[in-house]
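Collaborator request log, item 7. Partner lab (contact: R.S.) asked for a structural prediction of O-methyltransferase to inform their binding assays.
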Amino acid sequence: MSLFRLKRQISYWLNARHRRGHGIHSPYLFGLLTNVIENDGNYYAYETIDGVWASLMRSNVKVPGSTSTHEDVPEKLKLLVRRFDLLPKYGKMLFRLINEFQPKNIVCIGPVTGMTSLYLAKADSRISVNHYDGKKELLPVTKYLLETAEVENVTIHEGLPDFSSLDMEDAFVVLSYPEDPVRCHEVIQNIVRNPDEKPKVIVVNGIHQSQEMEEIWSELTTNEFVRVSLDFFTLGLAICLPDLQKENFVIRY
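Returned to partner:
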């Protein structure tokens, strides 16, 4: 963990006071926090995903080309999963949010290894999940994880999508570029520039990973179409439902 991120994490734990709906006056947001985000109930799909996670954490398999600076240096897959994918507590949060928002489709963009896709896909098998811009070295791992969990509603695409034709209306969008703020900003700008189609939700992983990522998150939340932003430190949740009052919260999670 970088010194920058450590300082931000300490500040977060000292200052994040919103928990269990405390200090939230909107009935809608109070219900979302207490009944969905902080719901600690169990779901049948969790058992399958938890099994895949446990298997990965026991593995000592190494994957080449795992870093942007040393493409030929292998790294343990379980470390990559922890670097680029969401930890189970956050994956399960997204699982519940998808059930709540019932988006038209789910778009995941970034070099995740497949664990994040499992949570997105298992939330509702009727909703299609499109995963873009994964690292090519990790694509076999992603495909293996999806096959192991018997997931059939995920389509994997190499590279970024064509944003001019990508259906973003009422979508649930997950961006995971914690170590690549330039790429993250590029993707967000493509989403913002579309005047007609806006997603229901945008999730950004790694919003406090660096000063650059913090600035990207702050810039996103100032857009008028983003009505509510929730900062969970590890990730940010931008809710784009037009009827909501514009508010920003730091949530202790």
